[in-house]
Amino acid sequence: MKKLGAIVIFILVSAASASGISWKTFDVKTGPLLGGWLESSTSIGWSLSLVKPLTPYIGVGAMIEVATSHSMCCDCAEYDFDELSEGLLVNFDAPLAYGFNLIANFMFLLHWEEGTVEGLYYPWRVEEDLYDADGEPVYGLYRMEEDNNDYDFESFMFRSNLGVAWRTSGGRFGLELYPLDFALVRGGDARYTMSLNAVVRVF
Predict the structure, then answer these.
(1) Three-state SS sequence of 124-158
(2) CA dihedral in degrees (42, 46, 48, 53; nearest 10)?
(3) CB 16 within 8 A of CB 34
């Protein structure tokens, strides 16, 4: 097993050296995002990631993302909260042509949401003292009360995206567009996102 690990490391180092990637090479990626949660909340935010290329095709890194989300609807809860996500990612890069690449990321993040929610959030049934026209008690009629609360949520988030990247001929600068970006948190909540990153390679 140790020999296999040494062989893999040797191959990665050789491929990186052949492409001009050194131990000092990092990609700094940052840009805006626009997303939507399944509970009809719209997110607007900004992300920053630092990726270490191991080869021209594989990289690992860390990222942090901040966003604000808000929903307005007449028949559901109205959320207004801030988001913070941070963690690790694995980056895959497949060259196409003319400086364009097909790019994908798999992210393993800790995710926090904090804010307020109004409307029918955690509603409960309250029995009322109701009577008919003859003054007799009527059983089984209830009304719903609203519970307006602070909103606080934390979870592990798995996120993956697929997009197209463009790099200058020297590979120093670039852009990444992700039209397909899916995030999943505890409880089955999901967010679909579009994002755009500017990329600077630091040698």
Answers:
(1) EEEECCEECCCCCEECCCEEEECCCEEEEEEEEEE
(2) 60
(3) no
Positions in the chain whose pLDDT score sits under 70: 1-20, 39, 72-76, 119-133, 137-148
- Whether 62 contacts 110, CB under 8 Å: no
Kindly report each contact of residues 17-21 with a partner whose C-beta sits within 8 Å and lies 24 or more positions away, as own/partner. 19/55, 19/56, 20/171, 21/53, 21/54, 21/55, 21/56
Tens-digit pLDDT profile for residues 112-171: 999 888 765 444 455 555 566 677 765 554 444 555 578 788 999 999 999 999 999 888
DSSP-based three-state secondary structure for 180: strand
Q: Which residues of 162-195 are buried (b: 16+ CB within 10 A; e: fewer)?
A: ebebbbeeebeebbbebeebebebeeebebebbb
Q: How far apart are CA 96 and CA 78, in angstroms?
A: 44
pTM above 0.85, yes or no: no
pLDDT at site 20: 64
Q: How many contiguous H segments (helices) and E segments (strands) does the chain have?
A: 1, 12
